Amino acid sequence: MPPPVVSIAMSMHNAVSGIALSLQSLIGQTFSDWELLLIDDGSSDDSVAVARRFQDDRITMFCDGRRLGLAARLNEAIAAARGRYIARMDADDLAYPERIARQVAFLDEHSEIDLLGTGAIIFDGAGQVVGQLPVRTHHQEIALRPWQGFYLAHPTWMGRSAWFRKYPYDVRLPKAQDYDVLLRSHGASRFACLPEILLGYRQERLSLGKTLATRLQVAQAAMNFGKTHGEYIRPLLTMVQQLAKSGVDALAILTGLDYRMLRHRALPVAVEDHERWRQLWQRLNLESSARCAE
User: Fold this and answer.
1) Does the pTM of the predicted model rise above 0.90?
2) What is the extent of the structural domain holding 242?
3) pLDDT tens digit sequence for 106-133
4) Same structural domain for residues 31 and 172?
């Protein structure tokens, strides 16, 4: 079988509530020359059984029963990928039908770009719109303040296979693996982002443990990078910033204001984008329900 243009790297762990919709959104892509490398990360629910109902030669699922974490599983998918481009997506997110086509066309036309993101709408478990993620389209804007973060949402990434293999995920940072990769690579890479909303990013209520772990690992990634490059002041400032944000997050979660905080941090969504999302949500629910009932 000839290699596909795009290899999609997806790991799932107890994703039974979202995996059917996620897979259905990929099967409905207008661009068909892709493979999905779906790696189960030790799920204890029915995620694997649900995923197996999606019989498609382009989907390859790996199950070894172990719990290794997202970074390790993504490295496995990247090692197995055959496409000239590698795309990321989480097992509870949804791709708009044109997502793969738009990103492939852009990367084909812009050989200088290593990694490309897209706009993303934020939705909750009931499919209600929370807002949208902020977008910056050019490398200089995306990486303007690398110590504070990058405007490039991880599940929207598509990039050249050689780039992903040059910058593997650090398995020691399972909650900040995307920030670490961008921080290590931004000086020698070119990033871009399509402003069009092409992904639905699921965001449930915040978990105190996961949120604090993410903040601490972002600080650790900054410290690691600083040590490598002889930079200490900005990593320390990043650590202070992340600790301060941890306090704000913890207060919001403990007082039940986390969902309001999510809405406050997100950007408003235009009426037409609300309608696009509503149609996508309804269609994917109908199609995935019919498939799972077969």
Assistant:
1) yes
2) 206-254
3) 999 999 999 999 999 999 999 999 999 9
4) yes
